[in-house]
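Interim report, section 4.2 (structural modelling).
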Amino acid sequence: MRLRPAAAAIVLTTVGCGGPSGDPSGPGTVTDEVLARAVPDGDWLTYGGSYAEDRFSPLDQITLDNVAELGLVWSYDFELRGGVETTPLVLDGVIYATGPWSVVHAIDARTGQRLWRHDPGVPRQRGRLACCDVVNRGAALYEGKVFVGTIDGRLVALDAETGRVEWETLTVDPDLAYTITGAPRVVEGLVVIGNGGAEYGVRGYVSAYDADDGALVWRTYTVPGNPADGFESEALARAAETWNGEWWTAGGGGTAWDAIIYDPELELLYIGTGNGSPWSRHLRSPGGGDNLFLASVLAVRPATGEYVWHYQTTPGDHWDYTATQPLMLADLEFDGALRRVIMQAPKNGFFYVLDAETGEFLSGQPYVTLNWADGIDVETGRPVERSEAVYDTEYALITPMTLGGHNFQPMAFHPETELVYLPVQEAWTRRASDPDWTFSGVEIRGDTLVSAPWNTATRGASAGRPASGSLVAWDPKAQESRWQVPLAGFWNGGVLATGGGLVFHGGGDGRFVAYDAATGESLWVAATRIGIIGSPVTYTVDGVQHVTVAAGWGGATGRSSSPYGEAADFDQRGRLFTFALGGSAEMPMPRRERPLYVPELELPTDAAALREGYELYSQYCVICHGGGGGSEGGMPNLQRATRLTHDNFEGIVLEGMREEEGMPSYRGLLSPEEVTLIQAYVVSRARAAVRAAETAEEEDPS
Ligand code: CA
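Predicted structure of the assembly:
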């Protein structure tokens, strides 16, 4: 079946296509009234496109029949290294896109020229607190301001026209390992923002600030703190009954680092909460318990943050199964009646449909292979856990692995197909608890992270099973897949659905593809050669439909592992790409990856020195540069470092020579002698890699 573009055009007419410039409150002003419109029209004003966050645009100039004529109009360089997970916002021909290090870029949608750029100046040391790269997923627009959360926990309000700072507020305790990667949401004059950090022992919460001046209006914690300090609410006092031991010493977790959505009719704000800290329930809450409100959808009053209801997807989370994944509102027919529902595909592998008013569990089925539960009890809404998945000191083989069956990558819903387009990922992991683990705390001196315990449970390998990714068209009523397209690899971008009957999606191989929403047939491909983990948006410029997507390999998987397919051969610095029918700009060619390189330098080569170099490297470098200095991901592969880099190794590591690009200084943490040992270790790994490549060539008869 092919969709009829005419049907979508009717939707467009009924909502009006004038854009915010037609609003009586003034040109280009995003007001509550503008935000309350059911669907995005000529602009793309919020992270998920509308309050419902269904990422559907009724624009239908680009159709199944003409999408093949789509071409590049311009591209824009984000300049800094790091993954680009952004969903750009578009208002009156201006694009607001966030890049690595929480930098906001305002770009002319006609030309791709920069209008302004705001670098909030996050100390590069702070990047070491980011479990999953120095990414940012997007900004918010409201009454002439652009709001962005920063990696170091600030909420910044900028003048949308000039980029000037209007106000700025610190939303976290800087002595704890909080980070912000998610997009703020604006609800009735309040800017709502969460945070991340549950891998480093923090307690999750969401805060709401006055959009005018940045004053804190409310803060709602997602897990209870130390009972001796008193509970902030009745709801948290009740939640504390589901915890045991001294859970608060390691923060408890439950960080709300992504999904926050608003239903103006029900006047509810929905928050997706994260995993437990530490991961192992045995260590976190000895004696058991559900550990509310971990891994839950939490509904609160938007004006006060007051608890209304919760639904917990993974009681007593034990597997880093966050429920921070994107939430979406829709009206769906259930048992003959139209229900207002929330849909979510959290990490744990079940696709959920919940009643948006009450939190009642309506249905849930696996959208990927999962082995930790046998299904969900329809009476109680609780998963039927498999005891063999509840690892202790013995390893258990688990799927989905810790990055989930689905991660931050936004999904889209097409009101005509009534399908949810969902980027899924499948992999296995071995997990066990370390019985000797205790929370050692995070030590931060100034902006310098001295020690940060990762979670707890011993992280096992992928168990030798291949990881894979695909784009799934999921029928949320029947709870089954309608079509599924295999992708080049595990880690990919978010989805957009349009009135032209199309679904747009970018992959970790850098290919940006338009699919037929009804069948999954691939109708158009643009090869950017840069792994795509951003989410596409569509809008009009001078009445002409455009599509924009960010490429920029990185994030939890991409920071230290290679993109897929042809992208693997190229430098992965991020770019923003804009397409329109008849676009004829040439696709820029990224720099090719440099060859492996072994500099001829006087460096120690004895086993003891290399061992020490390895240990220092493992403590300070591995999280970004990958094992052996050989990351093929978004961060530089040190085995390919040039002579120039090697000659300046100490200056780069200790003097901050490349701080602008994101490489922090380790002055005060490492001595020059230790830096030499790290360099010696990296060079030894480069030498081994060259040898391995030569041996492989000898063995290959071709
Ligand atoms: Ca986590």
